[in-house]
Amino acid sequence: MITSFLEYLVLERKYSKHTVTAYRKDITSFFEFCVVEYEAENLKDINYSQIRSWIVKLVDEGISNNSINRKVSSLKSFYKFLQKTDQIKSNPLAKHKSLKVAKKVQVPFTSKEINEVINNLEFEGDFKSLRNKLIVELFYSTGMRRAELVNLKRTSINFQSKTVKVLGKRNKERLIPLIPSVLKTVEEYLIFKNEIVVDNDYLFITEKGKKIYETLVYRVINNYFSNVSTKVKKSPHILRHSFATHLLNQGADLNSVKELLGHSSLASTQVYTHNSLEKIKQVYNQAHPRSHKK
User: Which CATH number describes the domain made up of 111-284?
Assistant: First the structure.
């Protein structure tokens, strides 16, 4: 039953290996709880009261509401699958309301911090430094996700149209314009990359010719920005957040930013607008004729 659900996530929903592993752990953990507490033999016979007691246990263990909501979401998807495949009549979590979580404000890098990093991206005459330089420039000029950058192919770059084709969530493709300086770095990078023996068509590779991995990309961004920023989080996602915030601060249309980021709805893009609102307030207070009146 659990196995067929996981196969559904991989084959039909196209979920990543990492995501499927998380779903398996959440559902297995819940089932083990039901076996111990209720001597359950089948997840199809579980009711909401039993699920609720599991949630209470997680709260008592000090698990964050955010983590609990993610675990319950995994379980809810599992029961939706059972309902869809006619293994149960109703989803016991159909009316469940998520636990309240405090909204975390993602603090983007300032333009000064980013310019300082980019201006100091010195090419030291080797493949690795040029690759890392391109990683930083691509992130900030496109706003793509870390997984999207890792999975870029050589053919993703179109020099004629000056665009990069990105394969986003749910295998949805989008085209993002590339500025001349980034295209120049791509050209320089490819010259060095062509000297390395590879057995794949990925754009970004290690010095041994293998596809780069997400933790390597995280380290690149973290290392560069640790030199100029004291922010707690210095990750590729914060660079993506900075890309969106800075575009909005400069007057970019919210719908256009939504398309560039590959969001399916405006609601996802609107989380980046809080900083833009601060910019608007600043401009308003400086420009409005009565803002300085007392």
Answer: 1.10.443.10
